[in-house]
Structure formats: C-alpha cells, structure tokens
C-alpha cells in the first residue's frame, strides 16, 4: 500500500482554510478564555485512565462520572444534531467524544462543526457513557480546541511510504502503533541495561563527543572546527579511550550510553550516527565480560518481550535464551574453508584463497584476510546467538594478546540475527605494547588506511600511570533493538539521518 496524503494543491487549500479558522479562534479569544493555542486546558484524567476505569460498560450505559480529557482528533463525523470524534492520546489510546445539540446547545455545536478538523488537539469534558454501539464515550458538555493543526493528517487507513515515515517520523508515530511500540521498547531496553549495570555496581559516566584525536575504534571520523580553540576536532567514533582513563583514575566499573558518529556507509545495519553502549570492568576479562553481555541482552529481552524468546515484527520467534555458543575464529574458518588456517598462515596462501572465492581485501594484512574470509565462509551459517572468539592481532590494536594461543588476541564479536551486535576484549593494559600497536596503526594510515587509529599520547600517558587488568565491551543500542524486534536499523532510531 502507498501513502495517500493529499496532493500539494489540496494541502495548500486545506491549510488556507485552517489558517482562517485559526484567525477566527484568536479573534474570539480577545473576549473569551479560549483561542487557537491556549496555555492549558483543565484535564482531569488521561484517556488511558478513563479506559482502565471503565473497561466493560454495557451498551448505552451511563456512569454519572464527569471527566475532562484531551487528545488529537483522528476521526471526525458530523451528522446533524450529533457529532462524533475519536480522540487519540500519545500512547495510542483512544476514546470517542460525542457532541450533541442537547448537551452543548446550538451555538457550541455549530462552532464545533465549523472549527474542529482532523489533527486538532481538542479538550472535552462530560459524562463517561457507553454509546448505542457499545463504544466508551464522553458525552460532551464543554469543549475547547487545545491546539489548531494547520496541516491535514495522512489517510489513516493506508500505510505511509517508507520515505515519509523516515522523513516525517511524527506522522509515523501518529498513525502507526508499531512505531510507538518501538520507541517504548527502546526506552524499556535502555532502562533494563541501566538496572543490570546497577546490580553489578557499575557507574554511568559521560565522556566528550568532541575530541582532538579520534580513537577507540577503526573508523573514518566526521571532522569539524572549533572557533573558540581555533583547532580541528572530531566527532567521537567511540568513547573507549576516555572510559579507560576513568578506570585508571580508580572508577573500576564504568559504562556509558552515548552517541557515536562514523563517516561511513549507511545500510540496513549501519547508520552514520548511532547509539552505543560501552562498559569496562577492572579485574575482568573477555570471558567475564561475555557473561555480562549475555545477561544484559537477555534481561533487556525479558523487559521488552516478557521472555528471552522474542517475536519479531514479521512474526518470527527468535530464542535469545540459554548459554550462547563460543566459536573460535580460526578453527571455524579452517573447517568451513576445508583448509587449515592458523595465525601463522602467510599472506600468499590467504591471498590465493581469497582470490579463489572472490573475496576482495583492500590494504591487505593477515588479519584483514582472515576476518574477510571468515565472514565469507562462516558468518552466513550463524543462526543462533554466537560469540566468535580469538581474533588476529593486527586488526585489534587495543586488545591483550591471548594468554595461551600465540598470534591472536582475547577478543570476541557477538553475532545475533546474522549481524554483529557487540564486541568484547581482555583489554591491553601494557603501555609499551600499546605504543607499538599505535605506531603500527600509524604506518597503516600512511599507506592509505583511513580507518587506522592515531597515536594518542594523552591516552598513553594515562596508561603509564598504571592501568589495572580489565574486560571491556561495546554494543550498539540500535542493533540491540534490531535483535529484539526484528526491525531494520532505521526503524529502531526515532529520527534517522536521511538525505
């Protein structure tokens, strides 16, 4: 189905009519208490509260209880001596307002017919009743326009186009229950994350969005300029290096839910601006942080869906419960490719395999070949939540070397629904090795790798003051909602970036 909003000429005509009604309301307000945009209206109950108070009224019943409610007019029918309007609250709950000649008088009824349009916010007060059709209603005695809408609503019986829903999210929220439910699910999930962290004695902190050096991830940054400092600045690609400084300072368990910005592509799982969770725990490692990550996600699923078995938007059930598999990267790649690949496998062998299966690697290194080949051979077969363990050294400059396997680091990526949801490390805390890693990243940058990390002397200075062993993790909040709801990333972001 497609969007059936009025055409441009029709919209202009309707807006002109509504502007005239606005002018009339304002003119009337010079001698009355109401107008087109009053500062307040005397609400006594929410629409949801009235519905909860009277869930099962019999047909044509009267309650004797008078309430005052307000909502947006989403349905309007004016017929002679009795007018009907459906008022919708922000949570999507609705109630019928009945405006009759017998209750409000001829003048007020005619004003209603002349002034009220679809989309207006209207206050009504009157007795709660059940209509002859059994619909919970307010038999209106007094009414007032709370805010005059100048633009018409789209047709509520047809679906908005994807373009309209993304660009005019407010219309999506007005017209579609799923849009409102997704916003609520996101808020519930984030609240659950905070509660889980509180249960483990983590502190929520804030770190800079504007940074003199971008770091903490391999990504292309957005660049800006500070007039006050006359210097180039970067929108953060990750909060990692600042959060680790907090741990150096003695804040042993910290996390941040933040906005990150990466000047890269946009698709069904990537957005240039996105919400990110990062957490660091002194004296933890990548196994303990994996346990915590599983707990965070499963608790969020229970909070949103009532169970770790979630139902996606298309009706598919997906099980986030149980203990998730932990799959070694090198052995799983070797098995899938039919040839043994180890941390010692040379570039010529990896390049030959990549060429054979049509995998292209820009600025190739051992680690980049391994990761691209793993995504080709293994990633498509991952159906259940899986921690992919033990990554190449050269693609993980902030991660500790594996305690028992030479040539790899203690890092995992968590895959859910076929996409990467989170990543976790045993963090590198040796400042000498960290400097060597940064120098190697600088060399890669000089060879044209725009995602390579910069050498950050301030971070290294903090490390040199002593950084305790720690485990750390990062998870996309938008992707967490994707895992729970089955929606694409733009659906999970309230106001996604569009051209």
Describe this structure in words.
This protein is α+β, with helices and mostly antiparallel strands and 499 residues long. 35% of the residues lie in helices and 25% in strands. It is built from 16 helices and 18 strands. Helix 7 crosses helix 9, helix 7 crosses helix 15 and helix 10 crosses helix 12. The longest helix is centred in the middle third of the chain and has 23 residues. The mean pLDDT is 93. Homodimer.
Tell me the β content. 25-35%
Q: What is the radius of gyration computed over CA atoms, rounded to a whole number of angstroms?
A: 29 Å
Structural class: alpha+beta
> Termini, distance in Å?
23 Å
Q: How would you sum up the major sheet?
A: 8 strands, mixed
Shape: elongated
Order of neighbouring strands in the sheet with most strands: 6-10-11-18-17-16-15-14
Helical amount among residues, as a percent range?
A: 25-40%
**Total DSSP helices:** 16
What is the tally of beta strands?
18
Unreliable runs: none
The averaged pLDDT comes out at 93
Task: List the keywords.
499 residues; alpha+beta; eight-stranded mixed β-sheet; five-stranded mixed barrel; elongated; lysine-tRNA ligase activity; ATP binding
Per-chain topology:
Elements: H1 8-29, H2 47-53, E1 62-79, E2 82-88, E3 94-100, H3 101-104, H4 106-115, E4 121-130, E5 136-147, H5 162-167, H6 169-175, H7 177-199, E6 203-204, E7 210-211, E8 223-226, E9 231-235, H8 240-248, E10 253-261, E11 273-282, H9 286-305, E12 309-311, E13 317-319, E14 325-328, H10 329-337, H11 347-357, H12 366-377, E15 386-392, E16 408-416, E17 419-426, H13 431-446, H14 457-464, E18 470-476, H15 477-485, H16 489-492
Parallel strand pairs: 3-5, 6-10, 14-15
Antiparallel strand pairs: 1-2, 1-4, 2-3, 4-5, 7-9, 8-9, 10-11, 11-18, 12-13, 15-16, 16-17, 17-18
Helix pairs in contact: 6-7, 7-9, 7-15, 10-12, 11-12, 13-14
């Amino acid at each position: 189905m497609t969007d059936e909003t009025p055409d441009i000429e029709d919209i202009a005509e309707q807006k002109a009519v509504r502007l005239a009604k606005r002018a009339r309301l304002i003119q009337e307000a010079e001698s009355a208490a109401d107008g087109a945009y009053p500062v307040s209206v005397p609400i006594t109950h929410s629409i949801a509260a009235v519905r909860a108070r009277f869930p099962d009224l019999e047909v044509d019943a009267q309650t004797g209880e008078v309430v005052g409610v307000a909502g947006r007019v989403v349905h309007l029918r004016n017929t002679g001596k009795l007018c009907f309007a459906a008022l919708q609250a922000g949570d999507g709950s609705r109630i019928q307002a009945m405006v009759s000649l017998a209750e409000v008088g001829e003048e007020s009824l005619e004003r209603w017919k002349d002034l009220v349009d679809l989309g207006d916010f209207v206050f009504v007060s009157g007795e709660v009743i059940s209509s002859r059709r059994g619909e919970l209603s307010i038999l209106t005695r007094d009414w007032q326009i709370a805010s005059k809408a100048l633009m018409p609503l789209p047709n509520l019986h047809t679906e908005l186009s994807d373009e309209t829903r993304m660009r005019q999210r407010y219309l999506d929220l007005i017209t579609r229950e799923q849009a409102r439910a997704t916003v609520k699910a996101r808020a519930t999930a984030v609240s659950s994350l905070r509660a889980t962290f509180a249960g483990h004695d983590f502190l929520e902190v804030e770190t800079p969005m504007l940074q003199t050096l971008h770091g903490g991830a391999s990504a292309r940054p957005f660049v800006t300029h500070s007039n006050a400092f006359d210097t180039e600045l970067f929108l953060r690609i990750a909060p990692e290096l600042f959060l680790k400084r907090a741990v150096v300072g003695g804040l042993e368990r910290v996390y941040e839910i933040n906005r990150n910005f990466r000047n890269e592509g946009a698709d069904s799982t990537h957005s240039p601006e996105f919400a990110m969770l990062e957490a660091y725990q002194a004296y933890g490692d990548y196994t303990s942080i994996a346990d915590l990550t599983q707990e965070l996600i499963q608790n969020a699923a229970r909070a949103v869906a009532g169970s770790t078995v979630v139902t996606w938007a298309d009706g598919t059930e997906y099980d986030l419960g149980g203990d998730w598999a932990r799959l070694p990267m090198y052995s799983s790649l070797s098995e899938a490719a039919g040839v043994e690949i180890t941390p010692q496998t040379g570039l010529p062998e990896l390049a030959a395999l990549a060429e054979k299966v049509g995998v292209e690697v820009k600025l190739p290194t051992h680690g980049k070949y391994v990761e691209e080949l793993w995504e080709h051979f293994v990633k498509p077969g991952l159906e259940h939540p899986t921690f992919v363990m033990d990554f190449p050294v050269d693609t993980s400059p902030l991660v500790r070397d594996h305690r028992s396997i030479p040539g790899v680091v203690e890092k995992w990526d968590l895959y859910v629904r076929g996409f990467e949801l989170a990543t976790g490390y045993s963090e590198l805390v040796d400042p000498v090795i960290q400097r060597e890693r940064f120098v190697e990243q600088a060399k890669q940058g000089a060879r044209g790798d725009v995602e390579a990390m910069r050498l950050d002397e301030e971070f290294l200075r903090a490390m040199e003051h002593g950084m305790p062993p720690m485990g750390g993790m990062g998870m996309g909040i938008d992707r967490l909602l994707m895992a729970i709801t089955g929606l694409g990333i733009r659906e999970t972001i309230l106001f996604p970036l569009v051209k």
